[in-house]
Amino acid sequence: MKTRAKAIPDVGPITAAQEFVGRSPGRFAWERLRRDRTAIVTGSMLAAFLVIALAAPLIELLYGIGPHEQFQHELDSFGMPLGVAGGISGEHWFGLEPGLGRDIFIRMVYGLRTSLVIAISAATITTTLGVVAGVVAGYLGRWSDTVIGWLIDFALAMPFLIVALAVAPTVALRFYDERDEVPAEFQAIVLVTIFAVFGWAGTARLVRGQVISLREREFVDAARASGAGVGHILFRELLPNLWAPILVSYSLAVPAYITAEAALSFLGIGMLEPTPDFGRMIDRSLGYLQTDPAYVFFPGITIFAVVFAFNLFGDALRDALDPRSSRSPLP
What we know:
Elements: H1 16-19, H2 25-34, H3 37-54, H4 56-63, H5 104-140, H6 142-157, H7 160-175, H8 184-214, H9 218-225, H10 230-238, H11 243-266, H12 278-285, H13 293-321
Helix pairs in contact: 2-13, 3-5, 3-13, 4-5, 5-6, 5-8, 5-11, 5-13, 6-8, 7-8, 8-11, 9-10, 11-12, 11-13, 12-13
């Protein structure tokens, strides 16, 4: 007796919904981010800025000019650069600094390196402290929540600028004499510490609220019922569900610290001479605003572009991580 083979039905082409079945939330977020033109443009800009900052010594080698070299012979008797637009030429792409005759381009390259190193270090430390404090306060509650809540309120109530103006010079004088040159590494550590003291509280409050809303969910109850410990619940159950607000908070903290570092250096309590820094360059350039506008234009537009790109990329990242956002492009 012959058996009849069953025909395989033709299901047709795979639909878009079937193609994305089984993909993780992170994969969905990546697909939405990749389809966002704003994210692509600003992400490319940020990647270029990071490459320039990391390759600063190589750029110096190829450019042939160091950040501390002075070209006094290319200044006139009033200390102004010779030539067009502040001395712009094939040798000095962005011209020279009035008075000292240092090359603006190479100092901007190292100034970008200074700003990004401080901002990324501060954002990493403050985000880590905020996540740990927020998770502990939100999950354990009771006395730990009360104590951490008091610390958060205290940190948020402290006037940042006043404390920074008082602390930064005092710390420097504690270790160095007034006539000593304070190392750039020490200045950077002081700034990162000041940012860490103030910056962790906002992230901690955000994470605490998220943990409070998650700790009574079914997957947490299931983990407790299976005998999972506190550490497993905190870092294996709750933390993976907090990556979206954490990443958004981190991406928006970096540009905030870039502007804060530039502002403190502008006021003379951040990075000091001769360390290349955008805040110091803008401070020195204000005295030449009418006679050499190119001096203030180049560092000003660069720091604006960096902060603007970070903020736009942070907004795009937030939309990509939130599937309910109307601005998030569908995968």
